[in-house]
Amino acid sequence: MYEITRTETAHGLVFALRTEGGVSHGALASASLADARLPAALEGFVANASQLARTLRPEHAPDAIRQASGPVMLALGNAIEAEGRAAAEHAATVQRTLIPPASVSRDRASEYRSLHRSLPVGDQMARVKTAGIEELAALLEAPDLAGLAEPVREAVRERALRLFHIERAGTQADHRKQPSLERIIAVGPDVEAAEASAAEGIARLRAEGDRIEEAESSLQGILTMLAIMLDVPREDVLRLAMGA
Fold first, then answer.
1. Number of C-beta neighbours around residue 98 at 10 A
2. What angle do CA 136, 197, 31 make, to 5 degrees?
3. Nearest to residue 123, comparing CAs of 98, 158, 157, 147?
4. What would the pLDDT profile of 178-221 be if each residue is shown by its tens digit?
5. Under the phi-then-psi rule, with left for phi > 0, alpha for psi from -120 to 50, and beta for the rest, what region is 231?
6. 238: helix, coil or strand?
7. Which of 29, 51, 227, 241 has the fewest CB within 10 Å, making it most exposed?
């Protein structure tokens, strides 16, 4: 059968599995999963499966372990669905943030795209690093017409996330300049407050994106471990988890 060890870490529960045939696999039940019930369900299943493997005859243990897998399959399916919802919400938030602010003019959009189309990739990248919101909006609207390579497109998205957020924050009432002893009659946006708000918002987006990637890795590892424990293909575990 197999031997499983469990270690509690700051990132969650780490399971190390080794079969009699010498197959080794590690899985992290991440503490950052959107559905926090999966680690406990997995821990319970591992304990139950280990006991069944010790107490039953080798020919009877596999079927008994498969029959005991219902709760962990349900928990895995719930976790996959929760992460799917979180990923969709994150993607939608990024897309909303990349919508150009209403103040952006489109008058020079074709000119900006034509200029980039004439540049080599290195010069495109250098220009994007200092591009303003109108140029970024033009490139985001039609990156193919601008002839942008994928690394340049990613740089455009990164810069647009920051500058668009600053532009929107600067027009909001809570980021207007406030009266001070230096200038009682204050007019215009508080640029520092707007930039701080933008940095905070982007940090949240990136942190959630990183969490989702960690969750994907965690779920992949757990699925593989369950496939080994149940002696079935990975696709069967996914099908069972999703109730198919």
1. 16
2. 100
3. 147
4. 667 677 766 566 667 777 777 888 889 999 999 999 999 999 99
5. left
6. helix
7. 51
